């Protein structure tokens, strides 16, 4: 009477058979890694060995034991200068991707179209008293 059909999403999920395959999961920006216990290393990669119950990581990050960490982004808002420099110095030997804010001065030789520059407009609002 009814035909069994799989949706494209279902068939894509069924294609994940081997231990080498998996799903990429991105966590929320405001997550905190406090409460994660790591394992592995070397060629095998870094894995979440344990998530401490009731820790900030268990509440804010959607990680599970056994997840492999492929990369991490550290946001420098509310990070001390010393800690930020230490993080950057430790990262010197590795592949990194930076998010930069630059004063708007693009020369003719450096057009925004030919580079990876993403223009951003920052607005500053101030309260006007008596209005």
From TrEMBL:
PANTHER family: NEUROBLAST DIFFERENTIATION-ASSOCIATED PROTEIN AHNAK (PTHR23348:SF41), PERIAXIN/AHNAK (PTHR23348). The keyword Cell wall biogenesis/degradation does not apply. PROSITE patterns: PDZ. Gene3D superfamilies: 2.30.42.10. It comes from Mastacembelus armatus (zig-zag eel). The keyword Lipoprotein does not apply. Residues 22-91 form the PDZ domain. Keywords: Nucleus. One of its GO terms (cellular component) is costamere. This is PDZ domain-containing protein. Its main location: nucleus.
């Amino acid at each position: 009477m009814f035909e069994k059909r799989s949706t494209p999403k279902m068939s894509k999920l069924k294609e994940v058979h081997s231990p080498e395959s998996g799903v990429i999961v991105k966590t929320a920006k405001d997550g905190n890694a406090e409460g994660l216990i790591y394992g592995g290393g070397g060629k095998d990669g870094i894995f979440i060995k344990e998530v401490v119950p009731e820790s900030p990581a268990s509440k804010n990050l959607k990680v599970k034991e056994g997840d492999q960490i492929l990369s991490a982004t550290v946001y420098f808002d509310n990070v001390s200068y010393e800690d930020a420099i230490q993080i950057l110095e430790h990262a010197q030997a590795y592949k990194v991707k930076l998010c930069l804010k630059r004063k708007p001065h693009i020369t003719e030789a450096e057009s925004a179209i030919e580079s990876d520059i993403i223009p951003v407009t920052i607005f500053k609002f101030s309260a006007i008293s008596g209005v």
